[in-house]
Amino acid sequence: MMYARKTFLAAASGALLLGGCATVSGPRLGPELVGQNIRLVPATGEASTLAFANDGTVVSSFGQRSAKGRWFVRDEWLCFVWAGNFQECWPYAAPFARGRTVSITSDRGNVVQATLL
């Protein structure tokens, strides 16, 4: 009887420990972007700035023009939908750090230097 109880307690403790590990993950991606701007510089050199809103909208400003779209994070990808149906996603495994420039390549092959301002 005592052996069965110890076995049950050991198994229950292991299950709780593993369950806790399954729910603990890396940093939540996306919140550091809300209300912030990211400067993008593509190979062509024409910089743009993305402004992220809490409601999932994003505004890209470049020169005297701007475009409004939507943004979301899914499976370590930061995705944008422009003009209602053009979607482009960028690898996003870790939060952006203010002032640090990273080179990223989209799922469409576009390469940019991105800096959280």
The amount of helix comes to: 10-25%
CA-based shape? globular
CATH class categorisation: Mainly Beta
CATH architecture name: Beta Barrel
- Radius of gyration over alpha carbons? 21 Å
Q: How many angstroms does the end-to-end distance come to?
A: 64 Å
Structural class: alpha+beta
If you average the pLDDT, what whole number results? 79
CATH topology: Lipocalin
Strands, count: 8
Number of helices: 1
Descriptors:
8 strands, alpha+beta, Lipocalin, globular, 43% strand
What does this structure look like?
The structure is a single chain. An eight-stranded antiparallel sheet has the order 6-5-4-3-2-1-8-7, with no helix packed on it. The protein has one domain: Lipocalin (Beta Barrel). The chain is built from one helix and eight strands; from the N terminus they run αββββββββ. It is an alpha+beta fold and 117 residues long.
What layout of secondary structure does this protein have?
Blueprint: H1 2-23, E1 37-42, E2 48-52, E3 57-62, E4 65-74, E5 77-82, E6 86-91, E7 101-105, E8 111-116
Antiparallel strand pairs: 1-2, 1-8, 2-3, 3-4, 4-5, 5-6, 7-8
